[in-house]
Design brief:
Layout (H helix, E strand, L loop, with lengths): L5 H18 L4 H15 L5 H13 L4 H44 L5 H25 L3 H16 L5 H16 L21 H25 L2 H14 L8 H9 L7 H11 L9 H33 L3 H4 L3 H30 L3 H16 L4 H15 L3
Length: 398
């Protein structure tokens, strides 16, 4: 039966996206498979080529790719409100779980328990797999491997709040110069146009807001010294500067949260480990962090702040995507940025993950077992998290 009214479309989008939010385990790549099966194969809200184009756009933009695809599909189906509803349905289930976990940690003071240490080892394994997988795709070849390695070295040796931003910008410039004459970066050869119910003036306003927040929030942060503005600024910038997947948000948030004393490194990494076991986007890790800092209001602020850039970028970019997607300079920038992202994640694998979690031989032994299960036995992340919890509990007696 065809759904005609906007209200009925919004309800349908909410129900379908909530179902995905409850069942989509396995990270961004798996999410895209779930989306394809539900939105393209079952619901037929868009065809395969249009879906592939939307995925290409969201992988091009900074932010959580799977969430952005969901926002884009909701927007195509039911306008801007449809995009908002699709985001709510996909995001809210994991937000609730992570907030409850944060309240558990605060209420029972279990941060020193062995199973919490097991979660930290899980985080090491998850990021190690991400570095391996992303490195093979985004930092292959001598040039991009060099960009990744230099980024990792500088990130580890030059500790400032702006290091990663500067390195991403420089890598983008390098990519544009190196690959500016490469006409084969995009071999899809498609120019399918999606029907997007967003006018260009509104789209430009969204892009203006995206950059406006990046400029204004740090200024307000300095002028007001408000904890809420500081929190919103930290999570907004983390959401705005993540390229290459949700795992890259780890070093960005760690640099923003831990040095301010809002959260210990141990509690930070424990939450990151739990975030691997819940369905939905990894960016909901922000809800855990916000809840640990200032309770439920903090969870709401952090979640909105970290996802707002993704929403503004998708709505702002959809009407203009086809004008820029085949530009070799733009794609060259992306090549350089993605290589730098691998380097940033590689640095995060060492600091804070490795040095905080692998402190004795038994920790390394558990990490090897977990990596084997995840990478070679293809066990789902929730299963690996469960084994990490059990392993951390028992190794605490050794």
């Amino acid at each position: 039966m065809k759904t005609n009214s906007r209200a009925a479309q919004l309800i349908e989008v909410l129900l379908v996206s909530t179902k995905l939010g409850l069942t989509s385990f396995g990270g961004p790549t798996a999410h895209l498979g779930y989306f394809y099966n539900e939105y393209v194969h079952k619901k037929k809200w868009l065809d395969e080529k249009s879906y592939a184009d939307l995925v290409a756009l969201c992988q091009f933009l900074p932010g959580p790719a799977s969430s952005q695809v969901g926002i884009g599909i909701g927007t195509i189906r039911a306008g801007v409100l449809g995009g908002l509803v699709a985001w709510l349905g996909f995001t809210l289930p994991s937000v609730i779980v992570l907030v409850l976990f944060a309240l558990l940690l605060q209420g029972y003071n279990v941060s020193g328990a062995g199973w919490i240490h097991g979660l930290k080892i899980v985080a090491v394994v998850i990021v190690a797999q991400a570095v391996l997988s992303m490195g093979q795709k985004l930092a292959s070849g001598r040039t991009r491997a060099t960009i990744a390695a230099l980024t990792a070295v500088i990130t580890l040796l030059w500790h400032t709040s702006y290091t990663q931003i500067v390195l991403i910008v420089l890598a983008g410039i390098a990519g544009m110069l190196i690959y500016r004459h490469n006409e084969s970066l995009d071999n899809t050869g498609r120019t399918i146009n999606l029907t997007v119910p967003v006018n260009r003036r509104f789209a430009i306003s969204c892009l203006g807001l995206f950059f406006g927040f990046l400029i204004v929030l740090p200024i307000l942060r300095q002028w007001t010294n408000s904890e809420w503005i500081t929190m919103f600024d930290s999570f907004y910038r983390a959401g705005a500067l993540v390229f290459g997947g949700g795992h890259v948000v780890l070093p960005l948030l760690q640099n923003e949260i831990v040095p301010l004393g809002w959260l210990s490194k141990e509690d930070f990494l424990a939450g990151y480990g739990v975030a691997q076991a819940v369905p939905g986007p990894l960016f909901t890790f922000a809800a855990y962090l916000g809840a640990m800092i200032t309770g439920i209001p903090g969870a709401i602020v952090a979640t909105i702040a970290i996802f707002l850039p993704a929403f503004l970028l998708v709505i702002g970019a959809l009407p203009f995507w086809y004008a820029v997607r085949n530009n070799s300079r733009v794609q060259g920038i992306l090549f350089g940025v993605n290589a730098a992202v691998v380097g940033i994640l590689m640095a995060a694998l060492y600091d804070p993950l490795w040095i905080s979690s692998i402190v004795q031989p038994v920790d390394f032994a558990l990490a090897v077992v977990l990596f084997l299960l995840l990478q070679f036995w293809k066990m789902p992340p929730w299963f690996v998290v469960a084994i990490g919890l059990i392993g951390g509990y028992f190794t605490s007696f050794m």
